[in-house]
Structure formats: C-alpha cells, structure tokens
C-alpha cells in the first residue's frame, strides 16, 4: 500500500491511497472535516453504515468510534482534503460567541454532500499543496475559520459538537461494549471512552463479563461473522473487516476453530 500525505500545516492535509483498499478502526482526537477528490469510503458505525464518493463532504466528530475502509475508484486513487478542527482552534473560535440555544449532543457523522459553500472553501485549499516552502499559518487559520463558519451556517446544531470541550464521562460498560465490539481499539482508548482508567476498565470488565476483554471481543466478532455469513449471505472477504478482524487468514483460522467449518465451507453448506 502506498499512502501519501502532504501537509500544508498540521491541521490541513492532502491524503492519498493508491492500493486496492485501506481499512482502519479510528477514534480521532480532533473533529475531521473531509472532502473527497476521488475514490470511495465506507464508514461503519455501531448502528449504521455510510458510503461517500467523489465530491462528498462530511464531518467526523472527535471520540467517535468507526471502521473506515478507503477504496480507489475508476483507476483514480482515494484522495481527500482533510481539515483537523482541533479543540484549541475551536476554543478560540467560540470564546466570543454566545450560543443561546442548547442542542442535544449527538455523536454522529454529519454529511454535507456537494454543498457549494463548503466545496468552494475546501477546493480553494488544493492548489496550495503544490507550493514550495512553509505555508503561512495566518492563511491556514483563515481557511479553517471559514470552514467552521460555513458549517455553523449550514447546520446550527453543529455547535453542540464543535463547542463541546468535555471529556467522556463514565458510561454503562456493558451497553458500550455490546455496541462497539467490532472496533479494534487499544484497551486504553476503550477505557477513556467509557470514562475509566485502564486498570478500572479491566477490573470492571472482568466483574461484568467474567472473561478477559480480548477473549470476549473475539467471541463476539466470530458470532457476528457467523450471522453475516449464514443469514446475510455475505462473502468472507466482505465480513472479516467489518466484524473487527485485520487479516483474512487469521479470521478463517479462528472461525474454523470455533465452529468446526471454514467461512467458505459454511457458505456452501447454506446454499
């Protein structure tokens, strides 16, 4: 896989993947505003799946768990312009703004497909990637401020996400894990998202599930894979990434060990 990233500043980059696909389970520390130049992306969350293509624009809030699968398309690489909307940047933006109406915070992906204001803002950044030398911070700041202002103009409820600077609070561990077991995250990050230190996370997990987190995660992923293969009639090559495995051969080995039949053989038995 060849991945190329060109940075104007640490907050603005041009990202390109030239291989067949690239999959990652992510939880961003910053809000990410993304514009597609070419290629396709599939984003899988606990209860929904998004598909984005050339021209689409979307915002991924920070601390949102998602599986992201990037595909080249029609001989073109998967290429995007990405803006990091950092907490520091947003605090400066909102410090003089009175947000009178409080909106309920909903951790979701915001889609702004082909919106002319946002597209114009992000497209105007593209030529700068060909410049030599250091890009002026004051111009980068103006472009990011413009993007935030446009987001607020398009959807007023976005303030609930962008102006929320709280850290995750303690949540119900059982409910959280049942919804998010398919995401490959370090245990430290899972602890952070549930409002726990790593030691407290491991202690609470053993208390509620009576098993180690890794063993429980593997079992849940294999159960979901069995359902996807037998009931949804999906192919193993479609399933293994979506349920949380990184490698097809490892998935096939673990699946056969648990169910006594390979994923491909199970498909044939169900025909």
UniProtKB/TrEMBL annotation:
Q: Which SMART domains match?
A: HTH_ARAC
Annotated HTH araC/xylS-type domain residues? 171-269
Q: Which Pfam families match?
A: ExsA_N, HTH_18
Protein origin, superkingdom: Bacteria
- Keywords tagged on the record: DNA-binding, Transcription, Transcription regulation
Q: Which GO terms describe its molecular function?
A: DNA-binding transcription factor activity; sequence-specific DNA binding
Entries under InterPro entries matching the protein: ExsA-like_N (IPR054015), Homeodomain-like_sf (IPR009057), HTH-like (IPR037923), HTH_AraC (IPR018060)
- This chain belongs to the protein called AraC family transcriptional regulator
Q: Which organism is it from?
A: Flavobacterium shii
